[in-house]
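Dear support,

I submitted the protein below through the web form. The confirmation email said the job was done, but the results page showed an empty box. After a refresh the structure appeared. I'm attaching both so you can tell me whether what I see now is the final result or a partial one.
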Amino acid sequence: MTHLIGALAHSIAQNQPVLSAWISGTDTGFAELLVREGFDAALFDMQHGATDIDIALRGIATVALAGKPSIIRIPVGEFQTASRALDAGAAAVIAPMINSKHEAALFADFMKFPPLGKRSWGPGRALTLSGLEPQAYLAQANQFQLAIAMIETREALDALDEILSVPGIDGVFVGPADLSIALSHGTLNPQSDAVMQALTHIASRAKAYGKFASGFGLGGLHARMLIETGFMLASVSTDAGFLRAGARTELALARPHQTQGSVKSGY
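What the results page shows now:
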C-alpha cells in the first residue's frame, strides 16, 4: 500500500506523523510548491477556503506531480463531494461538523465501498494514481482512502466514542478554533486549557479505538505540540499565513527603519 494515494494511510499505520500544507486559495501551483518544500501532503479546504470542486480535483492532480497525496475538506454535509474527491484520487476526506454517530455513519457510507459503505463505482483518476487494476482497487480502497470526521463542537466531543465506533471512520480531525468557541461559550482561544485537555482526551480515545487523531496546526510549534500529544496528522498554518509571514519578514529587511507595527498593518 505504498502507492501515491496509499502513502498517507501507510505513514499513519507505521506511526510516522504526517505534516500537511493547508490550501485555501485558488492556485493549485502553490500547493505543488509547498509539498516540494517538504510537506508530506496538501490539504485543500472547500469549507472556508476559496477552493471549489474544480480547484480541488485539479489540485489532486497537481500535487501528484510532486509525488505527494492530497486531502480534501468538503463543505458541511456535502458527503457526495467526498465520493467525487476519492474518485479523483484523494488520499483522505475530512468532513466538518460531524456531531453524532448518525452523521458519521452517513459520511462513511459515501466514503467506503460495499459491504462497509455505499460508495458507488467510478474511480476514474484514482485508478491511474494508485496503479491498481479495478478489482484490486475495489478490494483495497476502503483501507487506504481515509474517512476523517471533524470534532469541533460540544456535541461532537460528547459523542466522540460513538463517532469513533462507526465502521468506516478511520480518524478524527480537531478544529481548535471552533472547539474553543464551543467550550468557552463564545471566546476564541484555540490554545486554552480546555482545548488542550480536549486534545489529549481525543488522542487517547482515538488510540483506544485503533484509529487516529489529527488536527489544524496554528503554526509550526502548535503542529509539533499536536504530534507530541499523539496526533498522527497535523496541518501547519495556511497558504495565506505563509504568504503574510514571508511578506512581513522581507518587508522588515527592506525597510530597516520601519516599526514592527507598520509592517503588520496589512494583517
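Response: this is the final, complete result; the empty box was a page-load delay. Residues 262-267 have pLDDT under 50 and may be disordered.
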